[in-house]
Each structure stands twice: as C-alpha cells, then as structure tokens.
C-alpha cells in the first residue's frame, strides 16, 4: 500500500464520480488508495458507495457548526487524520474558506461541469444552452481560494446538439466526467500532474490555460 497515493474524497450527494474512482482503483488502473469518503450531508448515496467498496465513510454535517470557518477547521482535522496525499472534491457542494484551500494548495482537485473559466457556479448546462454555445464540457482543476477559479488540469469538450436540453447535455457531460477525473487523479498519483504557482504542469511541461484537452464527438 505504501507506494499508492492516499486519497480522501469529499462528497455531498450521489457520488457518481466517486464511483468512477472506486471502479478504476478496484480494476488496478489507478495507483491510489481511497482512504476515506467524507460527506457534509448525512445518508447520501455516495456514503453507501463507499461502504459497499469497503472504504471508511464519514459524515460531518455542516449544519452542526456555527460558522463556515468552524466547519472547515473540523473538516481539515478529519481529513488530515487519514494522512492523504490528495484531496478530491467529487460533488462537494460547499464554498471553502481561503484557510482551507490554502492548507491543501497543490494537492486538492475539483471537477466542474463547464469549460472553465466559462460558467463558474451553478446551472452550467442551462447557461451554455441559453448562450447558444456549440460546445460545452467539464473541467478538472486544482482548487484555489477563488470559487471554480483554480488552474485547469484536464478538460473534456462535448458538442451541444440542436435538440439538447439541460438534462441530455448534462448526461453527455457526465460520461466525460467519469473518464477525465480518474485520468487526472492517476496523473497526480504518478507524479506527472503538478501545480506550481498558478501554473499546471504535465510531465514537467506547462499546460495551456484550458489544461490538457480531450474532445468527444459522441452524441
């Protein structure tokens, strides 16, 4: 186990991206060990996914804390008790304090369903449709104090079809989420993906602002 990257995964819901990571780990495709799954909401499907995989599942309900700062301090203490090398946000629906993001700077990844810097925040699929975009997608990025503003590591681009609504577009994007999140986590675990300053490097070479980009022609 010692040569595998220790990963803590934070969730708030169903955990489909968590499942993609679990499946890749179990298949031997990722040199990682998911050491814990922590949810800020009790009784979500993602916690069940963790238990089914034999991973320690922890609930730390943000409603039990008087302030965002107190919750983040408790969350950091809980995470650090598992000694992770990498923290993965997989549908973790909390705005994090600068102290928290600074503590894990360069070793915390998030996935966001848009081609960042477009459409930070919520309702990204509908916003892409409303704007008449021909392409949409998903970004894995390192987490900084700016919400959805950290430098991109990997992006997957999908076409927007004439008959798309937010639901069909979301489904197409989610298929790519389950591909590129394990990809990025694997690269980090292998020491290939790093962040220095506000610049992401792959194999020692700086990546463009969009990160490593893959395109899906599938409809």
Task: Provide a descriptive summary of the structure in words.
- The strands form two sheets. Strands 3-2-1-4-5-6-7-11 form an eight-stranded mixed β-sheet, covered by helices on one side.
- It folds into two domains: 104 residues, Rossmann fold, CATH 3.40.50; 108 residues, Rossmann fold (3-Layer(aba) Sandwich).
- The longest helix has 24 residues.
- Helices cover 32% and strands 26% of the residues.
- The model has no long low-confidence stretch (mean pLDDT 96).
- It is of the alpha/beta class and 219 residues long.
- It is globular.
The backbone outline, from C-alpha atoms, is globular
Question: First CA to last CA: what distance?
Answer: 40 Å
Radius of gyration: 17 Å
Tell me the major beta sheet: 8 strands, mixed
Strand content: 25-35%
Annotated CATH topology of the largest domain: Rossmann fold
Please tell me the total number of domains.
Answer: 2
**What is the top-level CATH class of the largest domain?**
Alpha Beta
């Amino acid at each position: 186990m010692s040569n595998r990257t220790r990963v803590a995964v934070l969730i708030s819901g169903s955990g489909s991206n968590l499942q993609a990571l679990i499946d890749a780990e179990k298949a031997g495709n990722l040199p990682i060990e998911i050491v814990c799954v922590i949810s800020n909401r009790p009784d979500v499907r993602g916690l069940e996914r963790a238990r089914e995989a034999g991973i320690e599942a922890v609930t730390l309900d943000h409603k039990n804390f008087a302030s965002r700062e107190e919750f983040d301090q408790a969350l950091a203490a809980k995470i650090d008790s598992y000694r992770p090398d990498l923290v993965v946000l997989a549908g973790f629906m909390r705005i994090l304090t600068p102290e928290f993001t600074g503590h894990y700077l360069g070793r915390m990844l998030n996935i966001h369903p848009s081609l960042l810097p477009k459409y930070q925040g919520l309702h990204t699929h509908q916003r892409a449709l409303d704007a008449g975009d021909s392409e949409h997608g998903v970004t894995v990025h390192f987490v900084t104090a700016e919400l959805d503003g950290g430098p991109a590591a990997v992006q997957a681009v999908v076409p927007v079809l004439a008959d798309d609504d937010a639901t069909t577009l979301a489904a197409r994007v989610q298929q790519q989420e389950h591909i590129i999140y394990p990809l990025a986590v694997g690269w980090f675990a292998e020491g290939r993906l790093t962040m220095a300053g506000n610049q992401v490097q792959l194999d020692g070479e700086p990546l463009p602002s969009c990160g490593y980009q893959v395109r899906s022609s599938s409809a």
